[in-house]
């Protein structure tokens, strides 16, 4: 088995596919439609709330 087939097998497995995260910068990161822009705003607010929650729970 060479490196190319190994990478292809990893890409086709479900576990590897779940770990893929959308790039925040670079090619393919820009979303034109308004519905996608709203998702970015929501995720930022969620992370801010989560950060405050974690800060309060730590000793």
In total, the number of strands is 0
User: What is the N-to-C order of secondary-structure elements (H for helix, E for strand)?
Assistant: HHH
User: What's the alpha carbon Rg, rounded to whole Å?
Assistant: 18 Å
Task: Give start-end ranges of low-pLDDT stretches.
Answer: none
Structural class: mainly alpha
Q: What share of the residues lie within helices?
A: 55-70%
Per DSSP, the total helix count is 3
Structural domains: how many: 1
Q: Main β-sheet: number of strands, strand sense, barrel status?
A: none
Q: Judging from the principal axes of the Cα atoms, what is the shape?
A: flat
Explained architecture:
With 59 residues, this protein is mainly alpha-helical. It has one domain (3-56). It is 68% helix and 0% strand. It has 3 helices and no strands.
Topology readout:
Blueprint: H1 3-12, H2 14-19, H3 34-57
Organism: Suttonella ornithocola
Pfam families: ArfA (PF03889)
Protein name: Domain of uncharacterized function
Short description, anyone?
68% of the residues lie in helices and 0% in strands. The chain has 59 residues and is an all-alpha fold.
Annotation keywords:
59 residues, mainly alpha, 3 helices, 68% helix, ArfA, Domain of uncharacterized function
């Amino acid at each position: 088995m060479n490196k190319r087939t190994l990478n292809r097998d990893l890409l086709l497995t479900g576990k590897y596919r779940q770990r893929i995260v959308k790039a925040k910068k670079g090619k393919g990161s820009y979303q034109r439609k308004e519905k996608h822009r709203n998702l970015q705003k929501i995720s930022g607010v969620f992370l801010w709330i989560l950060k405050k929650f974690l800060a309060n729970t730590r000793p």
